[in-house]
Predict the structure.
Amino acid sequence: MQRACAAALLVKGTSVILNPGHSNDDKAALDIIQKLGAKISKVNGDLTVKSEGVNPVSSTINCGESGLGIRMFTPLAALSEKELTINGSGSLLTRPLDFFDEILPQLGVKVNSRNGKLPLTIQGPLRPVNIEIDGSLSSQFLTGLLLAYSTSPSNSLSGGEGGLASSVSIKVKNLKSKPYIDLTLDVIKKFGLRIPENRNYEEFFFRNDSSQVLPLGEDLGGAFSYTVEGDWSGGAFLLVAGAIAGPITVRGLDLTSTQADRAMIDALVAANAGIAIEAKGIKVRPSEMKGFQFDATDCPDLFPPLVALAAYCKGRTTIKGVSRLLHKESNRAVTLQDEFDKMGVLVKLERDEMIIQGNGKVKGADIHSQHDHRIAMACSVAALKADSETVIEEAQAVNKSYPDFYDDLKKLGADVSLDNKIKWHE
């Protein structure tokens, strides 16, 4: 959803976004593109975005708590020559953004930050040149640059000539989360932006010739349409809920998706969960599950549902990729360890691995989400078969990515008492 908003901003003309999300992160993305000049209307649940490129109508942009938002939209905002202040809230205020201090000046952008933290003040216009970046911290920085570089001369931007004057490339070392880059490239292609040549994820080469294509969505009377896929990141929690307390059937998840978190299917299979791919959706039911091994380096957002799953597996589960969890809404590795310890689940951290010793039993407990949406969802799912009531404080953190989460669990039969806390009753 957020990538679609960014692409719709860059494409001159009208785009229709079908099946749009309405999480806090999605709302922040819509607010950002409006501040950057797009006009948005909603008809029958679909969003129509009209844009003439990046032409800011405000001097300030707020990304809320969206890590993708700040990393993706900052390079796009820098396409303008206007001075802009970019800010956020919550945990985003403490996330490191030294990347922009280092890279944007190489692209002709003036940058001021609070020692690598928000707020940022930038002034472009950004000029694409040959650069090399480190992709070890997050692929989201690269997503922003790819989108900025993908803006073609025919979609030139206000405040400058815009577009690519010559062939340029972005070289990348130590790239993590390659599937997220696949998703970005897919959106670039479908919106008809300039498509880079992907050279084994080590270089993305933009030609100044024929690398632009027509949009691939349906033509709605001159307006291009893009359908937002169902979200595997949120769907992963429902799939785990089915494995713990099902059976349930989850519809709307594309098994051919480029989303990294589609790998949840592999983890469920490895755990010997009862899973069947049917025409009407993915059906998951409880079974005798066993500890498993999983590499989440390229899909770190799966750590929370994986821990909930591992709690109900007999034996040892090892998940690789802990180093990717430091700069999330919380220090997610430590938070998972602390909160699941309250539920009687032993979680150890050894270098880049998380080890969960499951025995199929979970205790009800008083939990704190630490303002992290995925922690709230993971503990909620783990509580479905706990031996007593579980109370989750700051449960509303789920609004960041999945505001309907508790309503969906109630539809599935969970007994949920909603206030500022969540109470699970036997």
